[in-house]
UniProtKB/TrEMBL annotation:
Leading EC class: isomerase
Keyword Isomerase attributed: yes
EC number: 5.3.1.24
Keywords: Isomerase
Origin superkingdom: Bacteria
Lineage: Bacteria, Pseudomonadati, Pseudomonadota, Alphaproteobacteria, Hyphomicrobiales
Source organism (scientific name): Taklimakanibacter albus
Keyword Isomerase: yes
UniProt-recorded name of the protein: Phosphoribosylanthranilate isomerase
Length: 216
């Protein structure tokens, strides 16, 4: 079965259209004002219209207030939420209850102990997404979308939950190897398909999807 691909941080009709044409299975919109990929709910609503029925629409939030979750649910009607902050298992259950949408929980990892954290979300999150924990020395690090990879062997060979999304520093050149090492069925990319922070590159999107889907 080919690897499913999520292209995250899309913010223009051209890049959404290109991602869909290249075979993206999920598209992500970021609702986090500090991110260079942040979009308003009005913009996301227009972008979601292009993607609906062709790929799953994912709304990425970071420790979001209820009001934002309600606004995204009403205006954008995503298929899933992706919680990328410090949300507890209880908060994930609450986001799921209020929105009526399954929730992906991002876990930032650097060590085996971080990987083990995912267990706590087994009953409330629909899926776990592994991302790299940014080093403390990284100035102006975002809660994700930093283009940093982690040691893939930490989640390889049955060391993690059976189903997960792999992210963190993936790009067209390394995604096939990442799939091989981890056995990931779904991969997610943001920085690795950009020419500068927040500006997606259509050629890199195409190359990434082709490399990920050709990986098994
Ligand atoms: O992309 C962002 O700006 C972002 C902001 C806040 C939280 C998460 C964010 N992105 C997600 O981070 C991972 C890894 O991204 P990258 O490929 O290493 O740039 C991915 O899931 C993005 O969707």
């Amino acid at each position: 079965m080919p690897t499913d691909v999520k292209i995250c941080g899309l913010s223009t009709p051209e890049t959404v259209t290109a991602a869909l044409a290249a075979g993206a299975d999920l598209v992500g919109f970021v609702f986090f004002p500090k991110s260079p990929r942040n979009v308003s709910t009005a913009t996301a609503k227009d972008l979601a219209r292009i993607a609906r029925g062709k790929a799953k629409i994912v709304a990425l939030i970071v420790d979001a207030e209820d009001a934002l979750i309600d606004e995204i649910t009403r205006e954008v009607a995503p298929d899933l939420f992706q919680a990328h902050g410090g949300e507890t298992p209880e908060r994930i259950a609450e986001i799921n209850r209020r929105s009526g949408r399954p929730v992906i929980k991002a876990i930032k990892i650097k060590s085996d102990a971080d990987v083990a954290q995912a267990k706590a979300y087994e009953t409330t999150a629909a899926l776990i997404l592994y991302d790299a924990k940014a080093p403390e020395t990284l100035k102006n690090a975002l809660p994700g979308g930093n283009g940093i990879a982690f040691d893939w062997t930490l989640v390889g060979s049955g060391k993690s939950l059976p189903s997960f999304i792999l992210s963190g520093g993936l790009n067209p050149a390394n995604v096939a190897q990442a799939v091989k090492v981890t056995g990931a069925r779904i991969v997610d990319v943001s920085s690795g398909v950009e020419k500068s922070p927040g500006i997606k590159d259509i050629t890199l999107i195409r190359e990434f999807i082709a490399a990920a889907k050709g990986a098994r």
